[in-house]
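== Sequence, structure tokens ==
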Amino acid sequence: MLGKIDLNCDMGEGFATDALIMPLISSANIACGYHAGGGELMHQTIRLAMQHQVAIGAHPSFNDREGFGRREMQLSGDEIHAIVTDQVNSILNAAQAEGAKLSHVKPHGALYNMAANDPMVADAISRAIKEIDASLILYGLPDSASESSAKAHGLRFYREVFSDRTYTNKGRLTPRQEPHALIETAEQSLAQVLQIILHQTIRSTDGQEISMQADTICIHGDGEHAVAFAQMIKQSLIQQGIAIKQ
């Protein structure tokens, strides 16, 4: 059984739940302006994270505000390297201006999913991070191209599992457009989190129990019951004697 787990949430995307969820998590992935946020909202979110002693991370994406960064874009490795570099530097500079430290990078949406499956995309992201600060932790899907590229570049990698998403038999996220891709109740979400932490397994959409190890668990802040999910998960983990920290 794990003695600790990191709870992360995507923040600074313009949702009203940020202030309620921030005290419940240990790391925040802050939007850098390409799919949402940026500017003063980025600074506000950094200050909110500092207030609650939450680790600050970059949440880079494709340049796609209209599609909220969830549409795949076919870019070259150099182009992906450039957009990740631009966004991580943007939040790094904002964090330094606020007297804070950047701890990690978690790609967003389509960029995250493509990096999990495409070594070229994954390599471009890892190279960008290493060149900026090799001590930054990369968050990504377990047993993926993201994990392989992080290790190849000497980066620390946090295997991320989602509290509110279902998984296929291959350990990949069920595509959002498919039925049952999202977990709709706090009870189901909590059951999945506890199974991951206590047993290092997860139940797929077909009912199979598959191996799944996690260093960090994502709670989405934009769901209808996001705050209730986060509160229940944190309370239960504390009751289990599991520390919540990065």
In short: The chain is about 40% helix and 15% strand. The beta strands are 4-11, 27-31, 55-59, 102-105, 137-140, 157-162, 201-203, 209-211, 216-218, 243-244. Helices lie at 18-21, 39-51, 77-97, 109-117, 119-132, 145-152, 186-199, 226-239.
